[in-house]
Amino acid sequence: MIELDLRIADPAWSEAIPDITAICETALNAGAAQMSASGEVSVLLTDNDDIQTLNKDWRGKDKPTDVLSFPSDPMDRPFLGDIALAFGVMQIDAADRALDLPQHLSHLLIHGLLHLLGHDHKDDTEAAEMESLEIAALASLGWPDPYR
C-alpha cells in the first residue's frame, strides 16, 4: 500500500480532474501491487514552467516533460521518493493520443512509481519489462494498453 503525500501546485489539475486525490491513490496502489511494494510517495502536480526547471536542474534538459521521478536513498525507506508531473505536457499528450486525463495521469503515475522502485527503460529488455508492469497495473484499473 502506498501512502500518498500530494501537493497540487497548479490548480488546473483539480479543475480538470475533480477526484484527483482518489485517482492518484488508486493508480499508485495499482502500480505497487504489481511489485508487492509499499511505502510513502510524494507527488507534485505542477505546471510546465516548474517541471522545466526541475528537468533542467536535475537532468540537464531545458524543456518541460510529462513526469519526473526522484527515487529516495534506500536508507530513507519506507519513503520511496518523489514524482513530479506537468499539467500542460500531460494534457497535450492525452489529447494527442485521445486518452482521458485520469487514464493518462494513472499511466504516468504508475510509470513514475516503477522508476522509484528501480525500473528503467534504457534498453529494449528493461523497457519491455517496465511496459508489461504498466500494462498489467492499468488493466487492473480497467484501462487499456497505452502502447497500442
Can you walk through the features of this model?
- The chain has 148 residues and is of the alpha/beta class.
- The chain has a single domain (2-140), classed as Metalloproteases ("zincins"), catalytic domain (Collagenase (Catalytic Domain)), CATH 3.40.390.30.
- It contains 6 helices and 4 strands, in the order E-H-H-E-H-E-E-H-H-H.
- The protein has a 4-stranded mixed sheet with strand order 1-2-4-3, sandwiched between helices.
- Strand 3 (67-71) and strand 4 (79-86) form a beta hairpin.
- Helix 2 packs across helix 5 (101-116).
Primary descriptors:
globular, 148 residues, alpha/beta
The name of the CATH superfamily reads Metalloproteases ("zincins"), catalytic domain
Q: What is the spatial order of strands in the main beta sheet?
A: 1-2-4-3
Q: In percent terms, what proportion of residues is strand?
A: 15-25%
Number of helical runs?
6
| Overall CATH class | Alpha Beta
N- and C-termini, Cα separation: 29 Å
Helix content: 40-55%
Query: Can you tell me the CATH architecture?
Result: 3-Layer(aba) Sandwich
Q: Name the average pLDDT.
A: 95
Oligomeric state as shown: single chain
Radius of gyration: 14 Å
Low-pLDDT residue spans: none
CATH topology: Collagenase (Catalytic Domain)
Number of strands: 4
* SSE run: EHHEHEEHHH
What is the molecular shape? Answer: globular
Structural class: alpha/beta
Main pleated-sheet profile: 4 strands, mixed
Domain count: the total is 1
